[in-house]
Amino acid sequence: MSQKPVALVIGAGDATGGAIARAFAKEGYATCVVRRSADKLQPLVAQIEAEGGTAHAFGTDARKEEEVVALVEQIESTIGPIEVMVFNIGANVPESILAETARKYFKVWEMACFSGFLTGREVARRMVARDMPAGGHRGTIIFTGATASLRGGANFGAFSGAKMALRALAQAMARELGPQGVHVAHTIIDGAIDTEFIRSNFPERYALKAQDGILNPEHIAQSYVMLHRQPRDAWTHELDLRPWMEKF
Questions:
Q1: Which residue ranges of the chain lie beneath pLDDT 70?
Q2: pTM surpassing 0.85?
Q3: Ordered domains of the chain (ranges, CATH)
């Protein structure tokens, strides 16, 4: 087993999730990165290793209970105890409520909320079962939210419903698990992120990058590390991040 603490990133994509994984790897964590297809994680693993870090890739569908249970068991038994878990699955699929299908609405909820419940529950079960360490911090669970976590927008009925539910889940978990030494935090990423999707589909918004008008994934990741490092007498539950020019 690894002698390093373990950071698990669910939804380690090419932008925010990957940046979070790299940030924890630079802090000395063995990073376990998860997407439905492990093959898509190989560039991220190679980058982390090239930077001197440790990474392990897992292909897991976080909507499937049996796969999530097996994932956590494998990591805990072969790599090490999970000290921090980040849930970063997006599922931002806009659609008019008039054209929305029951199947897609349910799928968005599965991805953005139900998967958070499954992964959060399994990791929390392991954390609370461990002996309370000095300082009383058994681990950190961070859920990535969005503008939709706070308000519904036109054509975002499915996404906002799922993200609001994820926020409520994070609040409930924080109130239950905080007294047991588990720090549960929810972030609100309020603004466009520097991704290929934004660059290709919203060029006018992407042009604001030169003015720091869109979020840099590396800077988001720094805030996640900060949340995990907080002492328990000053834990943040909800942290909102947005560019200086973003309206809110």
A1: 2
A2: yes
A3: 6-188+217-241 (3.40.50.720)
